[in-house]
Amino acid sequence: MVNLVKASFLALSLFLVACAAPSKAPQSLYDEIGGAPTIEAITENFINEVSFNETIYRYFEKTNITRFREKFNEHLCVTTGGPCTYTGDTMLRVHQGKNINEADFNTTVDLLVNAMEKAGLTYPQQNQVLKVLAPMRDEMLYK
Ligand code: HEM
């Protein structure tokens, strides 16, 4: 009887310890950086950075900035693993006909890095975003 009580107590203790242990569910980068407000800050900073760069701004002269803001936000949200749906066009379609060269592509990435830096992302967090975007490069260059 005593053994049974001891065993029950042990089982209960193990159960309580298991419940109290921190959850190991991996957090998305989206949550880690602060979710929607941070994503919106990056987009806003990026638009600002582009507007101050003569070379890159030239590409955006005829762009509907309200649409760009909305679609870029969604895209960044998905890129960071957030709970969004991207409703814009494919990267190929959007950048087609612009004949974007490597130098301008790299400059744009630098502007995005500045935008992320100003929104408070750490270097590892910035790199995580760039790593997801890197494979899309071929859809944008010289199209
Ligand atoms: C770093 C990777 C890039 C990403 C993730 C990206 C993403 C996007 C997104 C999500 C849109 C909006 C799509 C839509 O309206 O359906 C867009 C539009 C646009 N992007 Fe990019 N982009 C990138 C690089 C570039 C580069 C390097 C340039 C030019 C130097 C560029 C120029 C543009 C322009 C001009 C538009 C507006 C298109 C229009 O007015 O119809 N993007 N981009």
TrEMBL record:
Kindly indicate where the leader peptide sits in this chain: 1-20
Q: What is this protein called?
A: Group 1 truncated hemoglobin
Which residues are heme-binding?
H95
Query: Which PROSITE patterns has this protein been placed in?
Result: PROKAR_LIPOPROTEIN (PS51257)
- Name the source organism: Marinomonas alcarazii
Q: Cofactor comment in the record?
A: Binds 1 heme group per subunit.
Family note:
Belongs to the truncated hemoglobin family. Group I subfamily.
Domain of life of the native organism: Bacteria
Q: What are the UniProt keywords, alphabetically?
A: Heme, Iron, Metal-binding, Oxygen transport, Signal, Transport
Cofactor needs: heme
Higher taxonomy: Bacteria, Pseudomonadati, Pseudomonadota, Gammaproteobacteria, Oceanospirillales
- A GO molecular-function annotation: oxygen binding
Pfam family of the protein (one): Bac_globin
